[in-house]
Each structure stands twice: as structure tokens, then as C-alpha cells.
Amino acid sequence: MPSTSATRAPSDRSPTKGKNMTRGRKALAPAELHGPDFVGATPPDMAQQEADARNALAAANAKVAALARELRYEGSTDPQVLENSARDVIRRIGTGIFELGGYLLLLKEACAHGEFLPALERLGLGADAAQRYMAISKRFANTATSRHLESIGMSKLVELLPLDNEQLDELTEHGQTGELALDDVATMSVKELRAAVRQARHDTDYAAEQLQKERQRADKAEKKLRGRVPVVVPLDERIAPFHEEIGKRQSLIERAVQAHREATQALEAWWTAEVTSAEGYDPMAPAPLPRAVALVALTLQDGLNRLAQMVGVAQHEFDLAFGDDLADERQHLMQLPDAGTQDA
């Protein structure tokens, strides 16, 4: 057997390369998959999630298929298809409500006396339910109205019955009457709709009441203008309240003027007493008016000036109103209490 050492191929490694370069170092953790190396690879946790999702979907589809067999349904179970089918059925149910009410109305009219209730019993309908169907059909008989309301269901149609024709037309043609919007009817509960209809009726009744009151006031005013309720009062009686009021006001004016006169006289008497009673009084010497007394006198003067100005304005207004008519009449616009009556 040839010697192993003789047949070994010469090594191409240098003494340094032949040594173990990992001796004394820690082992590195396995590198995570990322970047281009990760393309097409699926981590274990993600693969499990996808598997769970597929299983859940399969289970859900199986439940839907089982329910379809139970209901003897052979159509598509796609959610969008089911939603469209349900919407179509709702429309047909709404249409059926109006059709049933119409048939019942005709049946009631066609039946002889006492035959309608037995007919309802044969149909399996109670009298109250039949009455609701007939009321709905009669109330919402026109095509435009029923087309807008056929999808909201019988319970809500019953709640809309209290609306008057004008409110119903506004709701179906314009989408809103008062605060009640057609778009909200579908989302409201029956209780909420009942409250909204009650409020709408209240608002309409209140507006009608106010309009009626306004019309009554207008009619009453018109009747007075037309003399439909004539009240003949003598001229002396009609003018008497003015005469009485003028007398009261004239008395107030006279009292105001008299008060100013008395105040002036009182101030003059007081100042005279002050001067004459002063020590060393000389009747020939001037007696200057102190500032305090002058201020009181100025207050009286300002009051008289204002009163005179007011009288002047009042006299001007009076002349504009009655001056031409009273040009030849005797008048005393300002008369002192002690002055006698003079002919103009």
C-alpha cells in the first residue's frame, strides 16, 4: 500500500490559513432573512396566520352553505348579491303593503253589510291590522308618494299618518318638512319617528293658529275701516278727553312757572335780609353778590331759560298745526296768573 504521506497532494494553504480562525470566538446567531434573500420566503408565523385565515373562511362558507341548504336557497351567497336581493325584497314588501291596503279598501266597499269582518277572518287578518293597511293605502295612494315611502316599512308608515297633505308632499317631493327629513326616516326608530312627527304636527298647528289670529285681527281692522261696526259718538264727547288732558298739563306748566317765581322771590328776600342785618350795614353802599348766592341764582335762571325755550318750541309747533285756522281767534299762549283776559 503506498504511503499516505507520499501520495498526499501538496497543500495550497499557507501556514496561517491552515490554522483554525474561529478558535476563541463566539458563534454568531443565524442571519435573519431580509432583502432580496427574503423574496418568496414565508416566515413560520405568517404562514400559520394565512392558514388560520383560510380555515376561518372555509368554516364561514361552510356555515353559510349549511344555512342555505336549510332555507332551500340555491342562489349566490356573495354578500353583495345577498344585499341587493334583500333590497329588492324590501321594495316588493313595501309595494305589497300598498297593494294589500287597496284590495282591502275595495273588498270593504264591495262586501254587503256584515260580510267584511268574516272575509278578514278567512284572510287571517285582524280588524285593527286591516284598518292600518287600508289607512296607509288611502293616505299614501298617489304613485309619487308610495314610491318614496315603500321601503320604510309598515310601522313607520303608520307613524307618518298624522302628517297633513302639505307636510307629506313636502316630505316626498322636497325631502323635508319642518325638521323632519326623509333621509332620517329610514334610520330613525319607530319611537324617534313618532316624536319627530308629533313635533312637526305641533309646529304646523302653531303656525296655523298664529296665521288664523293674524287673519282675525286683519278682518277686525278691515271691518272698522269699512264702518261695518259704526259707533256714533258726539263731537263734544270725543273731544272731552283732550280738553281734560290739556287742562291737566296746563296746570302743571303754571305750577312750574309759579314755583320758579316763588323761588326767585324767596332767594331775593333771604339775600336782602342777609345784607340789611349785617354789622355796619350802609344802605348807600353796594352789596356784591357772593359766589355761592350767585350760583343759586344762576340755577334758577337756567331753569327759566329752559322753560322759556320749551315754551317757544311748543308755541312754534302749535302755530304750524293750528296757526292758520286760529288766525282770527282769541288766544293766550302765555298768560300770567294775575293778568286779565284781553280781546285779540
Walk me through this protein's architecture.
With 344 residues, this protein is mostly helical. Among the domains are: 51-152, no CATH class; 162-227, no CATH class; 240-272 and 291-315, no CATH class. It has twelve helices and two strands; from the N terminus they run H-H-H-H-H-H-H-H-E-E-H-H-H-H. Helix 7 packs parallel to helix 10 and helix 11 packs antiparallel against helix 12 (291-322). Residues 1-44 are annotated as: Disordered. This is DUF3102 domain-containing protein.
List keywords for this structure.
344 residues, mainly alpha, two-stranded antiparallel ribbon, 12 helices, 2 strands, 65% helix, disordered N terminus, disordered C terminus, DUF3102 domain-containing protein
Show the helix and strand layout.
Blueprint: H1 4-7, H2 44-70, H3 79-110, H4 116-123, H5 127-139, H6 143-149, H7 154-160, H8 165-174, E1 176-177, E2 180-181, H9 182-185, H10 190-226, H11 235-276, H12 291-322
Antiparallel strand pairs: 1-2
| Largest sheet data | 2 strands, antiparallel
- Indicate the radius of gyration in whole angstroms: 54 Å
Summarize the helix and strand pattern as letters: HHHHHHHHEEHHHH
Q: What spatial order of strands do you see in the largest sheet?
A: 1-2
Proportion in helices: 55-70%
Structural class by SSE content: mainly alpha
Principal-axes geometry comes out as elongated
What is the count of helical runs?
A: 12
